[in-house]
Amino acid sequence: MPGLRLGEAAVDTSWTFAPGPILIALILGGLYVPRWLRVRRDDGAAAAPIWRLIVFLLGIVLLLVALVSPIDALAEQAFAMHMTQHVLLLDLVPICLMLGLTKVLLRPATRRLMALERAAGPLAHPVFAVCLYVGVMWFWHIPRFYDSALEHDSVHVLEHVMFLSAGLLYWWHLLSPIRSRMLKGIMGPVVYMLSTKLAVGVLGIGLTFTPDPLYDYYEQRPPIWGLTAGGDQELAGAIMALEQSIVMGIALAYLFIRALEQSEREQRRRERLEDLREAEAERTGV
């Protein structure tokens, strides 16, 4: 296998070039880029800012980094790298994809999405997204299921699909241009975020401080980079807990700023309406 020798085992740093992620990346890019170009041409730069394109393409790149780059091969050799793969799929990829969207860019699909939301019923509620996000993360770190995912390719693919799906649904409620009716204001998003990140952060802390290795798969493999199975698990838990804290802090700051901007826009709208009423009253003499 390609790679270099570090620690006690040869490190496989090969690219996987899995067809599934590459196909998904091509579909996402093929749908988004032409739409962005069309909106920018017809509606102007304000409707399709360049930063939206950049961040959406970054989401596609991060998807390929997680599932095609050497990270995918390294995930089978080190728990810390598998955790890196998980946080990319659960948080960073969905965040970038959602930030790349605007109401104008989504306009052709808005009615279909709203109809789908109504048809989904309880499955479209933010509480379900929280439960799915937390449940997926905890479920796939139960030793039996974690080891099974690494031992069987089909189970591993299912794991990745569930992580990405849970992440997309979770961040859709927070960051999509079609705002969730249940998360309006400031406190709704804060509670939504805190309940999720704290529940997952606890898992990361538990992995970090558990005295014995939990996963037979990594115990049975020769260590890489000089990491023992216990040290690898501690590092993976720390990555999870730290990533959840950083993402939570940045997301809360972003949501707070967005709420302030929305409040200012609504205030300006009320002032314009009041000015129009006063002008109409003066014109009619009422």
Number of helices: 12
Largest sheet: 2 strands, antiparallel
Structural class: mainly alpha
What percent of residues are in strands? under 5%
Question: How much is the radius of gyration in Å?
Answer: 23 Å
Task: Report mean pLDDT, rounded to a whole number.
Answer: 86
Helix content estimate: over 70%
Describe the structure.
With 286 residues, the chain is mostly helical. Helix content is 75%, strand content 3%. The protein has helices at residues 19-43, 50-67, 70-75, 79-99, 103-106, 110-120, 126-139, 143-151, 153-175, 187-209, 216-219, 229-284; strands at residues 3-6, 9-12. A hairpin with a 2-residue loop joins strand 1 (3-6) and strand 2. The model is unreliable at 1-7 (pLDDT under 50).
In short, what is this structure?
The protein is an all-alpha fold and 286 residues long. The chain is built from twelve helices and two strands.
